[in-house]
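Researcher: Quick test of sequence recovery. Tokens follow.
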């Protein structure tokens, strides 16, 4: 097992702040002993390197200061840089990144985000990400509608149109 990499706050806690990434990691790598609880991962032998950036995924959350809110492109770029370094400097056999998060396509750092993901491609690392969670339509209703990333870009998911190592999935 590897130690957690947290690009914003030093920690040894491998659980992410809203448990989503931890749950996805379980779907990927839960061992057969976990099957007694109804969950068995896709690859029981996988080694997972938890990489965190930010803390809380909500923006403009009055309960948490901006530096504790995740999802910012510059934090994602730093996290991707750590993954790149683990492969290129330390020789870790990293073949894929699970990126179940998104950033605002209007942020100024999205070009740097694209460049960071391109650098992963240069060392044969797949970048698996999400199409976006969608929105309530109409607002305030219970009707959840997914994003059409061809019409409403969601990053990094929309990078799958231009980068060969990006695989975008929908829930």
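Model:
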């Amino acid at each position: 097992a590897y130690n957690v990499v947290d690009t914003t706050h030093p920690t040894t806690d491998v659980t992410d702040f809203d448990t989503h990434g931890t749950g996805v990691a379980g779907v990927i790598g839960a061992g057969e002993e976990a099957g007694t609880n109804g969950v068995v991962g896709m690859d029981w032998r996988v080694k997972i390197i938890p990489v965190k950036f930010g803390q809380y995924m909500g923006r403009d959350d009055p309960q948490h200061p901006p530096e504790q809110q995740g999802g910012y492109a510059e934090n994602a770029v730093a996290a991707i840089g750590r993954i790149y370094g683990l492969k290129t400097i330390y020789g870790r056999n990293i073949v894929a990144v699970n990126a179940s998060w998104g950033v605002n396509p209007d942020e100024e750092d999205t070009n740097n985000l694209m460049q960071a993901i391109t650098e992963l491609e240069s060392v044969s690392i797949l970048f698996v990400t999400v199409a976006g969670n969608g929105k309530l339509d109409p607002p305030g209703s219970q009707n959840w509608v997914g994003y059409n990333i061809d019409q409403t870009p969601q990053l990094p998911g929309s990078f799958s149109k231009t980068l060969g190592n990006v695989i975008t999935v929908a829930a």
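The helical segments are 20-29, 73-88, 110-122.
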